[in-house]
Amino acid sequence: MALFVLFSMNVYAQNSAIEACQTYLEENGQSPEKYVISKFEQYDYVFLGEYHRNKQDVDLVTALIPALYENGIRNLAYEFYDYQNQAMLDSLLTAKEWNEDFLYRRISTGFAIVWGYVEYLNIFKKVWEFNQTLSPEQPKFRVVLLSAEFNPCKVPPYDIDPDLFMADVVEKEIIAKNEKSLIYCGIHHAFTTYKQPSYDFETGKFYGLHNERLGNIIHEKYPEKTFTIYLHAPWISNKGRDEQKVKPVNGVIDSVMSDLNNTPMGFDVKNTIMGTLTANDTYYSFGYEDFKLEDFCDGYIFQLPYKQVKFVSVDANFYDEYNLEKVTEFLRCRFPEEQIPTFTKEEVIEMVTENPKSHYGDLVKE
Hints:
Layout: H1 2-28, H2 32-39, E1 45-50, H3 55-70, E2 75-82, H4 86-93, H5 100-106, H6 118-132, E3 142-147, H7 162-175, E4 181-186, H8 187-190, E5 196-200, E6 205-210, H9 214-221, E7 226-231, H10 252-259, E8 265-268, H11 293-296, E9 299-302, H12 321-334, H13 345-352, H14 356-360
Parallel strand pairs: 1-4, 1-7, 2-3, 2-4, 7-9
Antiparallel strand pairs: 5-6, 8-9
């Protein structure tokens, strides 16, 4: 009887939370595009944190380009390719002619050699197309590449802190020029107020909370100018990174959005009913006595339920003979103890094609 009463109380509490959240979203939710743009009314550096390789997330950023420009935001800071190629990219995105072969060979440095995805690469072409619509007097839209070259063939190969490097790029290319920017990156780089746990799942040892990600660094210097939006995706389980993923805040957001017909929507988290939602089944709760969604992010965008999510596709044109050789070189340097073959285009495409189940687990069925 006691267990039944406890279960009933938990169900009642969750149902009450769902109803309160639904009311809030019905009154305050915005389309994802309008929501992102609205944040620049108060903030200069809006971090859009993704899970990686979800097609709808990259498509959202691509669709935002004209609206960003129209609202005075002329920069997209972009994690996925190397800053050493910035001058080349600036030249290409303002050129009279589009040169895809030139882009694909010059952008494929470091880890980008295994990031040959149609949707991520397409952002460059869409920016070039948009810049073609501007008059010669108008400033052009820029894509600012954030990453340090991750090249295992160099010695030493990994002597740069990636977050410090990206923060330096943001300072130099955006903040020093008194510009605003949408900063599109993985959610772990996008944390501003949230401190990420350092935890060894094998030993169960907790090393504390760290404030060293790209967003943390920028937020510490400019606390009134940063805002983090999380793009809806599963969370890492408290049982380990390789375990079944869990739904954010015990699935309340999924339940609420289902009741709202899964309408794509952006909404505030901090200082709202959404921010009070709690979770203790996730790695992200480690080190927090009462972990809430507002600890994790400032805003949230829901686009699709898990079973409707599509993943990015590999661009076969990216893997020409030149880049196939670079893939082989990259992997042989990274895994010197293994016998890495010379890959065919078909083998590379299969290797880098996203496996939804490996990231979403059984949630892809929901």
